[in-house]
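Support reply, case 0932

Customer input (verbatim):
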Amino acid sequence: MRRISLILFCQLLTMSAWAQGKEVPAHVMEQVYQEVKTPYKYGLVIVPENKDRKIDCPNVYRKGKWWYMTYVVFDGRGYETWMSRSKDLLDWKVMGRVLSFSDTTQWDTHQKAGYIALQHTKWGGDYKLQQYNGRYWMSYFGGKDRGYEAGPLAIGIAHTTGPIDKAQEWQREPAPVLTASDPDVRWWENKKLFKSSVIWDKSKTTGYPFVMYYNANGDTSNNTPKWRWFERIGMAVSNDMITWKRYGIDPVMHHRIGITGDAVIQKKGDLWIMFYFGAFWEGRKDAFNRFACSYDLVNWTDWKGDDLIKSSEPYDERFAHKSFVVKHKGVVYHFYCAVNNKDQRGIAVATSVDKGKSPLRFPVIEAAK
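Our regenerated output:
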């Protein structure tokens, strides 16, 4: 009986491991695609006030009757994080900064690109931010060099006791929590660390409550070809939102060539959905939005079908990428960064039902005389 019990126990362990790491079936992936697709492009919803600014990386959450969006603004010096609000997810009003430049010698003085953390992950849920230890949380990548994603970039943590419906400066931890020069840095992340997304997994699927997905680039391309830029998505975990530990050795989502980045995680039933963007993949020179699914947060099945978002309009003719997707009252809203051929950047949205067309346009750039 003891031998039989041991055999059954081992079989249960094997079945559990298989369930955790199993591939998501093709028919389930197709069901997810049909649920999240947004064939109707409404157009631009937030645009820069002048030709010198570029707006990127939407993050959307809800508090009360209002929706709020954080996003990053590049003005030539570096990144700051701003916020806007809306009642209907289409008409947005700029409110101000939440992470600003610092006139100091701090590690993040010229770069602070922030992303909301600990949002309720339920697909079609309330999209509210959760408090941990009496605070709301945000991860960001920062740096001390001027320019577009210039110099060493690392991941920091910011927090606030609120209110989160006002534009006010969030408090930042004094040092980054992950850098490209850490002793445990992995093979694919030893150059720059970029966007991060932190979820609160109260089931502790990985053994930890807080799970971070972030993309980074490393010395893996061997300059073949020179113009290719490699980024991959990996994981880190934490018990307290301050001390982070890298999870695993390899990235959890990557492609042979180009960028795989900016993961945003939601959950539908027992299935986790990762919205992410790709760029410059083999045979492609554009940027576009995709998704993958997982049962265990570690092993991801990549969607092989059509892009969720790709270039098709004058305002996104160069790039259409960097997802944030919400479902509200039966309608899916897919926010993304739209880039035209003049390199103007703003936030656009596509929807699952026709919402008409946005009146917003990029500022006119006068031709040089």
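We compared this against your earlier run and they match. Two observations from our side: The helical segments are 2-21, 26-36. The radius of gyration is 21 Å. Please reopen the case if you see a mismatch on your end.
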